[in-house]
Protein backbone atom coordinates (compact mmCIF):
# COMPACT_ATOMS: atom_id res chain seq x y z
CA UNK A 1 0.00 0.00 0.00
CA UNK A 2 2.81 2.38 0.89
CA UNK A 3 4.46 1.53 -2.39
CA UNK A 4 1.29 2.31 -4.33
CA UNK A 5 1.03 5.72 -2.69
CA UNK A 6 4.63 6.53 -3.53
CA UNK A 7 4.05 5.39 -7.12
CA UNK A 8 1.05 7.68 -7.34
CA UNK A 9 2.97 10.65 -6.00
CA UNK A 10 5.74 10.07 -8.54
CA UNK A 11 3.16 9.69 -11.30
CA UNK A 12 1.47 12.92 -10.21
CA UNK A 13 4.69 14.91 -10.33
CA UNK A 14 5.82 13.40 -13.64
CA UNK A 15 2.49 13.90 -15.40
CA UNK A 16 1.95 17.47 -14.16
CA UNK A 17 5.52 18.39 -15.09
CA UNK A 18 5.06 16.93 -18.56
CA UNK A 19 1.74 18.70 -18.93
CA UNK A 20 2.96 22.17 -18.06
CA UNK A 21 6.39 21.93 -19.63
CA UNK A 22 5.74 19.92 -22.76
CA UNK A 23 2.07 19.49 -23.65
CA UNK A 24 1.13 23.07 -22.88
CA UNK A 25 3.16 24.04 -25.92
CA UNK A 26 1.86 21.34 -28.20
CA UNK A 27 -1.35 21.82 -30.07
CA UNK A 28 -2.94 21.81 -33.46
CA UNK A 29 -3.70 25.52 -33.80
CA UNK A 30 -6.29 26.20 -31.15
CA UNK A 31 -8.38 23.23 -32.14
CA UNK A 32 -6.69 20.31 -30.46
CA UNK A 33 -4.82 20.64 -27.18
CA UNK A 34 -3.90 17.49 -25.27
CA UNK A 35 -4.35 17.10 -21.52
CA UNK A 36 -2.80 13.71 -20.72
CA UNK A 37 -2.26 14.67 -17.07
CA UNK A 38 -5.71 13.20 -16.38
CA UNK A 39 -4.09 9.76 -16.62
CA UNK A 40 -3.11 10.34 -12.99
CA UNK A 41 -6.77 10.49 -11.97
CA UNK A 42 -7.58 7.45 -14.11
CA UNK A 43 -4.86 5.41 -12.41
CA UNK A 44 -5.68 6.16 -8.77
CA UNK A 45 -6.26 2.88 -6.88
CA UNK A 46 -9.72 1.43 -7.45
CA UNK A 47 -10.86 1.29 -3.85
CA UNK A 48 -9.94 4.88 -2.98
CA UNK A 49 -12.87 6.38 -1.01
CA UNK A 50 -15.02 8.75 -3.04
CA UNK A 51 -14.32 11.77 -0.88
CA UNK A 52 -10.54 11.28 -1.15
CA UNK A 53 -10.89 10.85 -4.91
CA UNK A 54 -12.73 14.16 -5.22
CA UNK A 55 -10.24 16.00 -3.04
CA UNK A 56 -7.29 14.64 -5.01
CA UNK A 57 -8.92 15.44 -8.35
CA UNK A 58 -9.84 18.93 -7.18
CA UNK A 59 -6.29 19.61 -6.06
CA UNK A 60 -4.86 18.16 -9.28
CA UNK A 61 -7.14 20.45 -11.26
CA UNK A 62 -6.11 23.45 -9.18
CA UNK A 63 -2.44 22.63 -9.70
CA UNK A 64 -2.86 22.56 -13.45
CA UNK A 65 -5.02 25.70 -13.27
CA UNK A 66 -2.21 27.49 -11.48
CA UNK A 67 0.05 26.87 -14.44
CA UNK A 68 -2.64 27.68 -17.02
CA UNK A 69 -3.84 30.85 -15.22
CA UNK A 70 -7.40 29.62 -15.38
CA UNK A 71 -8.42 29.14 -11.76
CA UNK A 72 -11.21 26.57 -11.41
CA UNK A 73 -11.57 25.41 -15.00
CA UNK A 74 -9.49 22.26 -14.74
CA UNK A 75 -10.72 21.68 -11.21
CA UNK A 76 -14.29 21.53 -12.48
CA UNK A 77 -13.34 19.18 -15.31
CA UNK A 78 -11.39 16.84 -13.03
CA UNK A 79 -14.26 16.68 -10.56
CA UNK A 80 -16.57 15.70 -13.42
CA UNK A 81 -14.05 13.06 -14.46
CA UNK A 82 -14.05 11.55 -10.97
CA UNK A 83 -17.81 11.35 -11.02
CA UNK A 84 -17.63 9.39 -14.26
CA UNK A 85 -14.92 7.20 -12.78
CA UNK A 86 -16.94 6.17 -9.74
CA UNK A 87 -19.98 5.59 -11.92
CA UNK A 88 -18.05 3.51 -14.45
CA UNK A 89 -16.35 1.39 -11.79
CA UNK A 90 -19.68 0.82 -10.07
CA UNK A 91 -21.34 -0.62 -13.13
CA UNK A 92 -18.43 -2.57 -14.65
CA UNK A 93 -16.59 -4.07 -11.68
CA UNK A 94 -17.82 -6.65 -9.22
CA UNK A 95 -17.58 -6.08 -5.48
CA UNK A 96 -14.24 -7.89 -5.13
CA UNK A 97 -12.61 -5.82 -7.80
CA UNK A 98 -14.08 -2.64 -6.32
CA UNK A 99 -12.48 -3.37 -2.96
CA UNK A 100 -9.00 -4.17 -4.24
CA UNK A 101 -6.30 -1.56 -3.90
CA UNK A 102 -5.03 -2.19 -7.43
CA UNK A 103 -4.12 0.44 -9.97
CA UNK A 104 -6.59 0.20 -12.90
CA UNK A 105 -3.83 0.03 -15.51
CA UNK A 106 -3.80 -1.47 -18.98
CA UNK A 107 -1.91 -4.58 -17.83
CA UNK A 108 -4.36 -5.35 -15.06
CA UNK A 109 -7.74 -4.42 -16.53
CA UNK A 110 -7.26 -5.59 -20.11
CA UNK A 111 -7.52 -3.74 -23.41
CA UNK A 112 -11.25 -3.48 -23.86
CA UNK A 113 -12.09 -2.25 -20.38
CA UNK A 114 -9.14 0.13 -20.25
CA UNK A 115 -9.78 1.65 -23.64
CA UNK A 116 -13.46 2.37 -23.03
CA UNK A 117 -12.60 3.67 -19.53
CA UNK A 118 -10.02 6.08 -20.93
CA UNK A 119 -11.91 7.20 -23.99
CA UNK A 120 -15.28 7.94 -22.36
CA UNK A 121 -13.56 9.54 -19.37
CA UNK A 122 -11.41 11.75 -21.59
CA UNK A 123 -14.42 12.78 -23.61
CA UNK A 124 -16.33 13.80 -20.49
CA UNK A 125 -13.35 15.63 -19.03
CA UNK A 126 -12.80 17.61 -22.24
CA UNK A 127 -16.49 18.26 -22.66
CA UNK A 128 -16.69 19.92 -19.26
CA UNK A 129 -13.29 21.57 -19.60
CA UNK A 130 -13.93 23.32 -22.90
CA UNK A 131 -17.49 24.29 -22.05
CA UNK A 132 -16.38 25.96 -18.85
CA UNK A 133 -13.45 27.56 -20.65
CA UNK A 134 -15.43 28.99 -23.58
CA UNK A 135 -18.45 29.69 -21.39
CA UNK A 136 -20.78 30.56 -24.26
CA UNK A 137 -22.87 28.85 -26.89
CA UNK A 138 -21.78 31.11 -29.72
CA UNK A 139 -19.83 29.19 -32.34
CA UNK A 140 -20.96 25.99 -30.72
CA UNK A 141 -19.95 23.75 -33.64
CA UNK A 142 -16.34 24.80 -33.40
CA UNK A 143 -16.44 24.12 -29.65
CA UNK A 144 -17.70 20.59 -30.28
CA UNK A 145 -15.13 20.04 -33.00
CA UNK A 146 -12.40 21.24 -30.68
CA UNK A 147 -13.63 18.87 -27.94
CA UNK A 148 -13.56 15.92 -30.33
CA UNK A 149 -10.10 16.63 -31.73
CA UNK A 150 -8.59 17.33 -28.30
CA UNK A 151 -10.09 14.12 -26.94
CA UNK A 152 -8.63 12.05 -29.77
CA UNK A 153 -5.25 13.69 -29.20
CA UNK A 154 -5.36 13.04 -25.44
CA UNK A 155 -6.59 9.45 -25.83
CA UNK A 156 -3.76 8.69 -28.27
CA UNK A 157 -1.18 10.10 -25.87
CA UNK A 158 -2.61 8.26 -22.87
CA UNK A 159 -2.73 4.94 -24.73
CA UNK A 160 0.84 5.51 -25.88
CA UNK A 161 2.02 6.12 -22.32
CA UNK A 162 0.12 3.10 -21.05
CA UNK A 163 1.69 0.89 -23.68
CA UNK A 164 5.10 2.27 -22.80
CA UNK A 165 4.69 1.20 -19.18
CA UNK A 166 2.76 -1.94 -20.04
CA UNK A 167 3.28 -4.78 -17.61
CA UNK A 168 1.06 -7.82 -17.88
CA UNK A 169 -0.10 -8.90 -14.46
CA UNK A 170 -2.75 -11.18 -13.07
CA UNK A 171 -6.00 -9.88 -14.44
CA UNK A 172 -8.80 -8.59 -12.26
CA UNK A 173 -11.31 -9.18 -15.00
CA UNK A 174 -11.91 -12.47 -16.72
CA UNK A 175 -10.66 -11.57 -20.20
CA UNK B 1 -33.68 10.20 9.19
CA UNK B 2 -32.01 6.87 8.76
CA UNK B 3 -33.40 6.58 5.26
CA UNK B 4 -32.10 10.00 4.37
CA UNK B 5 -28.68 9.03 5.68
CA UNK B 6 -28.74 5.81 3.64
CA UNK B 7 -29.79 7.75 0.59
CA UNK B 8 -26.90 10.18 1.02
CA UNK B 9 -24.43 7.33 1.50
CA UNK B 10 -25.74 5.40 -1.45
CA UNK B 11 -25.37 8.31 -3.84
CA UNK B 12 -22.43 9.97 -2.09
CA UNK B 13 -20.42 10.11 -5.33
CA UNK B 14 -23.06 12.30 -6.93
CA UNK B 15 -23.40 14.63 -3.95
CA UNK B 16 -19.67 15.04 -3.66
CA UNK B 17 -19.64 15.78 -7.38
CA UNK B 18 -22.26 18.51 -7.04
CA UNK B 19 -20.43 20.04 -4.10
CA UNK B 20 -16.96 20.07 -5.64
CA UNK B 21 -18.22 21.09 -9.06
CA UNK B 22 -20.08 24.05 -7.59
CA UNK B 23 -16.99 25.17 -5.73
CA UNK B 24 -14.97 24.93 -8.94
CA UNK B 25 -17.52 26.91 -10.95
CA UNK B 26 -17.68 29.59 -8.25
CA UNK B 27 -13.89 29.84 -8.45
CA UNK B 28 -14.07 30.14 -12.23
CA UNK B 29 -16.69 32.86 -12.29
CA UNK B 30 -15.12 34.86 -9.48
CA UNK B 31 -11.56 34.77 -10.63
CA UNK B 32 -11.52 34.77 -14.39
CA UNK B 33 -12.29 38.06 -16.01
CA UNK B 34 -13.62 36.55 -19.23
CA UNK B 35 -16.09 34.20 -17.60
CA UNK B 36 -17.26 36.87 -15.19
CA UNK B 37 -18.02 39.31 -17.95
CA UNK B 38 -19.69 36.73 -20.12
CA UNK B 39 -21.68 35.43 -17.15
CA UNK B 40 -23.25 38.85 -16.92
CA UNK B 41 -23.20 39.46 -20.65
CA UNK B 42 -24.78 36.25 -21.85
CA UNK B 43 -28.04 37.68 -20.57
CA UNK B 44 -27.44 40.67 -22.77
CA UNK B 45 -27.15 38.44 -25.81
CA UNK B 46 -30.50 36.94 -24.83
CA UNK B 47 -32.07 40.34 -24.31
CA UNK B 48 -30.54 41.69 -27.51
CA UNK B 49 -31.79 38.88 -29.70
CA UNK B 50 -35.19 39.09 -28.03
CA UNK B 51 -35.49 42.73 -29.01
CA UNK B 52 -34.24 41.82 -32.47
CA UNK B 53 -37.03 39.26 -32.83
CA UNK B 54 -39.65 41.59 -31.44
CA UNK B 55 -38.54 44.32 -33.78
CA UNK B 56 -38.72 42.10 -36.83
CA UNK B 57 -42.45 41.80 -36.10
CA UNK B 58 -42.92 45.40 -35.10
CA UNK B 59 -41.26 46.66 -38.25
CA UNK B 60 -44.18 45.34 -40.30
CA UNK B 61 -46.54 47.61 -38.43
CA UNK B 62 -44.48 50.65 -39.31
CA UNK B 63 -44.03 49.57 -42.91
CA UNK B 64 -46.41 52.21 -44.21
CA UNK B 65 -44.59 55.02 -42.47
CA UNK B 66 -41.21 53.68 -43.50
CA UNK B 67 -42.24 53.43 -47.12
CA UNK B 68 -43.46 57.00 -47.07
CA UNK B 69 -40.19 58.21 -45.58
CA UNK B 70 -38.15 56.31 -48.12
CA UNK B 71 -40.22 57.66 -50.97
CA UNK B 72 -39.74 61.18 -49.64
CA UNK B 73 -36.03 60.66 -49.34
CA UNK B 74 -35.91 59.27 -52.86
CA UNK B 75 -37.70 62.30 -54.17
CA UNK B 76 -35.31 64.61 -52.37
CA UNK B 77 -32.28 62.77 -53.70
CA UNK B 78 -33.68 62.83 -57.19
CA UNK B 79 -34.21 66.54 -56.91
CA UNK B 80 -30.65 67.07 -55.77
CA UNK B 81 -29.38 64.87 -58.57
CA UNK B 82 -31.35 66.95 -61.03
CA UNK B 83 -29.57 69.99 -59.70
CA UNK B 84 -26.22 68.47 -60.54
CA UNK B 85 -27.26 67.37 -63.99
CA UNK B 86 -28.71 70.71 -64.96
CA UNK B 87 -25.78 72.75 -63.70
CA UNK B 88 -24.51 74.87 -66.54
CA UNK B 89 -20.89 73.91 -67.00
CA UNK B 90 -20.20 76.94 -69.18
CA UNK B 91 -21.22 79.30 -66.45
CA UNK B 92 -18.79 78.12 -63.86
CA UNK B 93 -16.38 75.28 -63.59
CA UNK B 94 -16.95 73.21 -60.55
CA UNK B 95 -13.96 71.54 -58.98
CA UNK B 96 -14.95 68.28 -57.42
CA UNK B 97 -12.74 67.22 -54.59
CA UNK B 98 -12.48 63.49 -55.04
CA UNK B 99 -11.35 62.98 -51.46
CA UNK B 100 -14.29 64.92 -50.05
CA UNK B 101 -16.69 62.83 -52.09
CA UNK B 102 -15.55 59.66 -50.40
CA UNK B 103 -15.02 61.15 -47.04
CA UNK B 104 -18.06 59.68 -45.31
CA UNK B 105 -19.05 56.09 -45.24
CA UNK B 106 -22.60 55.16 -44.20
CA UNK B 107 -23.53 51.93 -42.49
CA UNK B 108 -27.24 51.10 -42.45
CA UNK B 109 -28.65 49.77 -39.20
CA UNK B 110 -32.04 48.80 -37.90
CA UNK B 111 -33.28 50.04 -34.53
CA UNK B 112 -34.02 47.18 -32.15
CA UNK B 113 -34.61 49.16 -28.98
CA UNK B 114 -35.38 52.78 -28.36
CA UNK B 115 -36.40 54.97 -25.45
CA UNK B 116 -37.66 58.55 -25.35
CA UNK B 117 -39.20 58.84 -21.92
CA UNK B 118 -36.11 58.54 -19.73
CA UNK B 119 -33.87 61.28 -18.51
CA UNK B 120 -31.04 59.69 -20.47
CA UNK B 121 -32.25 57.98 -23.61
CA UNK B 122 -30.50 55.31 -25.64
CA UNK B 123 -31.09 53.59 -28.94
CA UNK B 124 -29.88 50.07 -29.72
CA UNK B 125 -29.24 49.02 -33.31
CA UNK B 126 -28.53 45.64 -34.85
CA UNK B 127 -25.09 46.44 -36.25
CA UNK B 128 -21.92 46.15 -34.21
CA UNK B 129 -18.17 45.96 -34.34
CA UNK B 130 -18.37 43.18 -36.92
CA UNK B 131 -19.93 45.65 -39.33
CA UNK B 132 -17.24 48.24 -38.71
CA UNK B 133 -18.99 50.36 -36.09
CA UNK B 134 -16.78 51.95 -33.47
CA UNK B 135 -17.32 54.00 -30.35
CA UNK B 136 -17.97 57.66 -30.94
CA UNK B 137 -19.35 57.59 -34.49
CA UNK B 138 -22.27 59.81 -35.41
CA UNK B 139 -25.68 58.36 -36.22
CA UNK B 140 -28.29 59.95 -38.51
CA UNK B 141 -31.59 59.04 -40.11
CA UNK B 142 -32.95 60.12 -43.44
CA UNK B 143 -34.31 63.25 -41.80
CA UNK B 144 -32.03 64.33 -39.02
CA UNK B 145 -29.52 63.32 -36.43
CA UNK B 146 -30.00 60.57 -33.85
CA UNK B 147 -26.93 60.59 -31.62
CA UNK B 148 -23.50 59.20 -30.98
CA UNK B 149 -22.41 55.56 -30.70
CA UNK B 150 -21.68 54.82 -27.04
CA UNK B 151 -20.89 51.11 -26.85
CA UNK B 152 -20.41 48.34 -29.38
CA UNK B 153 -20.64 44.58 -29.08
CA UNK B 154 -20.03 42.22 -32.03
CA UNK B 155 -23.65 42.36 -33.20
CA UNK B 156 -25.27 45.34 -31.54
CA UNK B 157 -24.41 48.87 -30.60
CA UNK B 158 -26.00 51.33 -28.23
CA UNK B 159 -26.37 54.94 -29.24
CA UNK B 160 -26.48 57.80 -26.80
CA UNK B 161 -29.41 59.56 -28.37
CA UNK B 162 -29.73 63.29 -28.76
CA UNK B 163 -32.23 63.03 -25.93
CA UNK B 164 -29.45 62.59 -23.40
CA UNK B 165 -28.02 65.33 -21.15
CA UNK B 166 -24.42 64.63 -22.21
CA UNK B 167 -24.91 64.75 -25.96
CA UNK B 168 -23.60 67.89 -27.66
CA UNK B 169 -23.59 68.35 -31.41
CA UNK B 170 -22.06 71.27 -33.25
CA UNK B 171 -24.68 73.05 -35.41
CA UNK B 172 -25.03 76.14 -37.53
CA UNK B 173 -27.92 78.46 -38.43
CA UNK B 174 -28.66 78.59 -42.13
CA UNK B 175 -28.15 82.22 -43.04
CA UNK B 176 -25.70 83.58 -40.57
CA UNK B 177 -23.25 80.69 -40.40
CA UNK B 178 -22.83 81.14 -36.69
CA UNK B 179 -22.14 78.09 -34.60
CA UNK B 180 -23.80 76.79 -31.52
CA UNK B 181 -24.09 73.50 -29.78
CA UNK B 182 -27.20 71.42 -29.86
CA UNK B 183 -28.30 69.87 -26.58
CA UNK B 184 -31.53 68.40 -25.34
CA UNK B 185 -31.37 70.83 -22.45
CA UNK B 186 -33.93 70.81 -19.69
CA UNK B 187 -36.54 69.41 -21.99
CA UNK B 188 -38.86 66.59 -21.25
CA UNK B 189 -40.37 66.71 -24.73
CA UNK B 190 -38.67 64.52 -27.32
CA UNK B 191 -39.82 66.86 -30.09
CA UNK B 192 -37.75 69.85 -28.98
CA UNK B 193 -34.11 70.66 -28.23
CA UNK B 194 -31.95 73.68 -27.49
CA UNK B 195 -29.16 75.36 -29.41
CA UNK B 196 -26.83 77.00 -26.93
CA UNK B 197 -24.08 79.57 -27.11
CA UNK B 198 -25.16 81.62 -30.08
CA UNK B 199 -23.55 85.08 -29.94
CA UNK B 200 -25.87 87.80 -28.77
CA UNK B 201 -25.64 90.01 -31.83
CA UNK B 202 -27.02 87.44 -34.23
CA UNK B 203 -30.63 87.93 -35.28
CA UNK B 204 -32.46 84.66 -35.12
CA UNK B 205 -35.87 84.35 -36.67
CA UNK B 206 -38.58 81.88 -35.95
CA UNK B 207 -38.69 79.10 -38.55
CA UNK B 208 -35.04 79.42 -39.46
CA UNK B 209 -33.43 76.10 -40.34
CA UNK B 210 -30.65 74.54 -38.27
CA UNK B 211 -27.97 72.37 -39.91
CA UNK B 212 -24.99 70.34 -38.72
CA UNK B 213 -21.78 72.30 -38.97
CA UNK B 214 -19.51 69.52 -40.16
CA UNK B 215 -16.97 70.23 -37.43
CA UNK B 216 -17.43 66.90 -35.75
CA UNK B 217 -18.69 63.41 -36.54
CA UNK B 218 -21.54 64.45 -38.85
CA UNK B 219 -21.30 65.56 -42.46
CA UNK B 220 -22.01 69.21 -43.08
CA UNK B 221 -25.49 70.39 -43.92
CA UNK B 222 -27.82 67.79 -42.46
CA UNK B 223 -31.04 69.52 -41.52
CA UNK B 224 -31.78 69.09 -37.85
CA UNK B 225 -34.85 71.20 -37.33
CA UNK B 226 -36.23 74.70 -37.27
CA UNK B 227 -36.22 77.47 -34.69
CA UNK B 228 -39.31 77.46 -32.51
CA UNK B 229 -38.56 80.10 -29.88
CA UNK B 230 -35.79 82.66 -29.75
CA UNK B 231 -34.27 85.04 -27.30
CA UNK B 232 -33.76 82.89 -24.29
CA UNK B 233 -30.98 84.63 -22.42
CA UNK B 234 -28.44 82.23 -20.98
CA UNK B 235 -25.52 84.47 -20.09
CA UNK B 236 -23.97 87.84 -20.72
CA UNK B 237 -23.28 87.52 -24.40
CA UNK B 238 -24.95 84.33 -25.51
CA UNK B 239 -28.41 83.38 -26.66
CA UNK B 240 -30.24 80.13 -26.43
CA UNK B 241 -32.70 79.02 -29.06
CA UNK B 242 -35.37 76.41 -28.77
CA UNK B 243 -35.76 74.30 -31.88
CA UNK B 244 -38.23 71.75 -33.14
CA UNK B 245 -36.43 68.58 -34.14
CA UNK B 246 -37.00 67.07 -37.57
CA UNK B 247 -36.18 63.59 -36.33
CA UNK B 248 -39.23 61.87 -34.94
CA UNK B 249 -37.58 60.03 -32.08
CA UNK B 250 -40.66 58.02 -31.23
CA UNK B 251 -40.57 56.39 -34.63
CA UNK B 252 -37.08 55.66 -35.91
CA UNK B 253 -36.58 52.41 -37.78
CA UNK B 254 -33.57 52.74 -40.00
CA UNK B 255 -30.49 54.72 -39.13
CA UNK B 256 -27.18 55.37 -40.83
CA UNK B 257 -23.96 55.25 -38.85
CA UNK B 258 -21.55 57.81 -40.28
CA UNK B 259 -17.93 56.85 -40.50
CA UNK B 260 -15.62 59.76 -41.20
CA UNK B 261 -12.72 58.28 -43.13
CA UNK B 262 -10.56 61.34 -42.57
CA UNK B 263 -11.30 61.63 -38.84
CA UNK B 264 -7.89 60.33 -37.77
CA UNK B 265 -6.04 62.62 -40.10
CA UNK B 266 -7.98 65.64 -38.88
CA UNK B 267 -7.48 64.77 -35.22
CA UNK B 268 -3.78 64.22 -35.70
CA UNK B 269 -3.34 67.56 -37.36
CA UNK B 270 -5.33 69.35 -34.68
CA UNK B 271 -3.34 67.65 -31.96
CA UNK B 272 -0.14 68.80 -33.59
CA UNK B 273 -1.38 72.35 -33.69
CA UNK B 274 -2.37 72.17 -30.06
CA UNK B 275 1.08 70.88 -29.20
CA UNK B 276 2.78 73.71 -31.04
CA UNK B 277 0.66 76.31 -29.35
CA UNK B 278 1.13 74.88 -25.92
Automatic annotation (TrEMBL), chain A:
Q: Which organism is it from?
A: Sphingobacterium humi
Transmembrane parts of this sequence: 6-23, 35-59, 71-93, 114-132, 144-166
- State the name under which the record lists this protein: Rod shape-determining protein MreD
Question: What top-level branch of life does the organism fall under?
Answer: Bacteria
**UniProt entry tagged with the keyword Transmembrane helix:** yes
Lineage summary: Bacteria, Pseudomonadati, Bacteroidota, Sphingobacteriia, Sphingobacteriales
Is Transmembrane given among the entry's keywords?
Answer: yes
Alphabetically list the UniProt keywords. Answer: Membrane, Transmembrane, Transmembrane helix
From TrEMBL, chain B:
What single Pfam family name could you report for this chain, choosing any that match?
Answer: MreC
Q: Does the keyword Coiled coil apply?
A: yes
Q: Does the keyword Coiled coil apply?
A: yes
Where would one find coiled-coil regions in this protein?
60-87
Q: Where is the signal peptide?
A: none
User: Which Gene3D superfamilies did the record assign?
Assistant: Rod shape-determining protein MreC, domain 1 (2.40.10.340), Rod shape-determining protein MreC, domain 2 (2.40.10.350)
Start and end of every Rod shape-determining protein MreC beta-barrel core domain? 111-259
Q: Which UniProt key words apply to this protein? A: Cell shape, Coiled coil, Membrane, Transmembrane, Transmembrane helix
Q: From the record, give the transmembrane residue ranges.
A: 12-29
Biological-process GO terms, alphabetical? regulation of cell shape
Q: Which InterPro entries match?
A: Cell/Rod_1 (IPR042177), Cell/Rod_MreC_2 (IPR042175), MreC (IPR007221), MreC_beta-barrel_core (IPR055342)
Q: Which GO terms describe its cellular component?
A: plasma membrane
Similarity field? Belongs to the MreC family.
Q: What is this protein called?
A: Cell shape-determining protein MreC
Record lineage: Bacteria, Pseudomonadati, Bacteroidota, Sphingobacteriia, Sphingobacteriales
Gene this protein is translated from: mreC
Amino acid sequence: MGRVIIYNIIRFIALIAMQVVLFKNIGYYNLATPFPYILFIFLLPISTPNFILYVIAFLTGLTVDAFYDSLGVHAAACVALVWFRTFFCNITLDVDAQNSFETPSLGIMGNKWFFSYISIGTLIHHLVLLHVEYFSFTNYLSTLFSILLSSIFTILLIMLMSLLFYKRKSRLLGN
Amino acid sequence: MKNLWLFLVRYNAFFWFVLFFTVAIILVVQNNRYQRSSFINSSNVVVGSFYDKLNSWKSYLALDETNKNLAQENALLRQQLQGYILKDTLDSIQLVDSIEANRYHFIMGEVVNNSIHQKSNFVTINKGSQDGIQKGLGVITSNGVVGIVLNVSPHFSTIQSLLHPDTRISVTLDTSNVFGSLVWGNNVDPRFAMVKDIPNHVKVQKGQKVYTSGFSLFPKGIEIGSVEETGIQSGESFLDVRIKLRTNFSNINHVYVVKDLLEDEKNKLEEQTADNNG
